[in-house]
Amino acid sequence: MRRRRWSVGVISDTHGLLRPEALAALRGSDRIVHAGDIGSPDVLRVLEEIAPVVAVRGNNDHGPWADKLPLTDAFELDGASLYVIHDVKELGLDPRAVGLSVVIAGHSHRPLSEERDGVLFFNPGSAGPRRFRLPISVGHLVVHGASVVGRIETLTVAA
């Protein structure tokens, strides 16, 4: 389906904690990607109320609900090809060679939006429990044809 522009909300490492600030930041998304360490099927149910969700299993996702999730997923929006994996260190392919526009990952809890050899590597950081001194954040991708622009949003959350 060709559109003028797609808004993709990206979240990761919720570990069962879906903060209201994260939900507010994702509202208005046309799609939501959860890059693993979801923590509970309830997280996915709530995100589905906002927009269709693409989710992958993280290393901390266990049980029958998590077993149904893929370890990786790929989808296309307009002219862009997006690939989702929890830990980018487990990426077993050359993203440029297979024509990917974006590789979305989580795991590290470190936000990242960086182009490498024509491919956007995007990690929204963690929206769940605070880890060390890393920010609480989500990400946004704007897809327009084959062009994809990423933005990290640091959330202001109650202590």
Write out key terms for the chains shown.
159 residues; mainly beta; Purple Acid Phosphatase, chain A, domain 2; five-stranded mixed sheet; 3 helices; 10 strands; globular
The end-to-end span amounts to 42 Å
Indicate the structural class.
mainly beta
Percent of sequence in beta strands? 25-35%
Helical content class: 10-25%
Number of structurally distinct domains: 1
Q: Give the CATH superfamily.
A: Metallo-dependent phosphatases
CATH fold annotation? Purple Acid Phosphatase, chain A, domain 2
Q: Count all strands and give the number.
A: 10
Low-confidence stretches: none
How would you spell out the order of helices and strands? EHEHEHEEEEEEE
Helical region count? 3
- Mean pLDDT over the full residue set: 94
CATH architecture: 4-Layer Sandwich
Sheet bearing the most strands, described?
5 strands, mixed
Structural overview:
The chain is mainly β. It has one domain (6-154): 4-Layer Sandwich (Purple Acid Phosphatase, chain A, domain 2). Helices cover 12% and strands 34% of the residues. It contains three helices and ten strands. It has helices spanning 20-26, 41-48, 64-67; strands at 6-11, 31-34, 53-55, 72-77, 80-85, 102-104, 112-116, 119-123, 137-144, 147-154. The strands form two sheets. A five-stranded mixed beta sheet has the order 3-2-1-9-10, with helices on one face. Strand 2, helix 2 (41-48) and strand 3 form a beta-alpha-beta unit. The termini are far apart. The model has no long low-confidence stretch (mean pLDDT 94).
